[in-house]
Amino acid sequence: MRGAGSVGATAGGEWAGMRNATVPCPFAVAGIPFVHQGEAGMVLPDCIASDWKGSRVTDEPIRVAHAVGDTSTNGLTRIIATRLPLGDFYIDAEERLAIRGRGAGEPIDRPQLLRTKRSGFEYTITYAGAEDTLRMQWGWHRTIFMFALPLRCRGLSLHATAFILPDGRGVACPGVSGAGKSTLARALLEVERPGLTVLGDDRIALTNDSGALWLWGTPWHSSAGTSVADDAPCTALVFVRHGDRPTLAPMNPGDAARRVLRTIAIPFWDAAATAFALETVNQLVTSVPCFEFSYAPGPRSGDALVRQLIDALPALDT
Questions:
Q1: Are 25 and 57 in contact (CB under 8 A)?
Q2: pLDDT of residue 51
Q3: pLDDT tens, 130-169?
Q4: What is the DSSP letter of 244?
Q5: Cα 275 from chain centroid?
Q6: Are 130 and 232 in contact (CB under 8 A)?
Q7: Strands of 112-118's sheet, edge to edge?
C-alpha cells in the first residue's frame, strides 16, 4: 500500500480536505504541490522541469507569491554566505529564512529575494522587474522544497540516487558530489529487469509518515538525466565506493549515519526542524539494512547490485 496522505487537489484545481488523494499534479514533488500566485499580467512558471510529470498529492501545498519590488536585504541579518547558485542566507526579525539569490550566469545587478511568510508552507519571491519571473525557478523550487520537508517535520531531501526493485522495495544510495551517484544510476538504467525503476540520480525525497519511511523521485537530476515521479517504501541504504569486484557488505548504523548527514539539507536556523532531521536520520539507519557496495563501473555492475540486494533483503510485506 502506498503511504497515506491528507490533502489533495480537486479536478478544478482548488484545494480541499480529501484524504489519501492520488491526483497527479505537475507541480507536486513527494506529495507536496507548488501553488503560484502573482500580480496581474505577471508571467508565472508553468512547470518545475520540462520532463517532470508530477507526483500524486498527499500533503498541503507550498504557496509561492511572486512580486516586483525591492530586492535589497535591508532589515535582514546574514547568517551564511554561500557560493552560487543559492546565494546568501539571512533571517528576518522573526528568525524566518530569506535568501538573496543570483543564478550562475545571471546578471549581477538583477538579484532575486526569497522571503518566508510561513516556514515550510508560504514564501514570496521578489524580482527587480517582471521580465525576471521565469528565471531561476528550477533552483528556487529545489531550495524551497528541500528545506520545507524538515520544516514541516515531514521528511528530508537526500543528495542521492534511488531506485525501486522489481518487487516494489525502494533503495536509497546517498553520497556527496563526485561519489558516483550518476554513474550508478546509468548502470542501473542498463539493467534489463521488468519493474526496476530508477527514481533519480541527484535529489531524492525521504518522507516520514507516522513512522513509515518513504522514497520519492524529484525533478532535480544530475548527469544521468533521470527523474521519475514515483515512490516506494524505503527498505535499504546503499553507499557506493570503487572496488575491484562487485561486493555488497553490511554497514553499521553509526557509519551509515555519518555518511547520511553529509547529504541532507538541514534548516539549522530552526531548532525543531533540526531536531526532527537528526531524529529521522537515526530512525533511517536503525530501521533499514545499511550496506556498502564496492564495484568497478561497467556494463554489469548495476545488475550485480540488484541481484545481491534481492538476495540480502527480506521479502517486502504486502
A1: yes
A2: 85
A3: 888 888 888 899 999 999 999 999 999 999 999 999 999 9
A4: S
A5: 19
A6: no
A7: 34-38, 62-68, 122-127, 112-118, 97-101, 88-91, 77-80
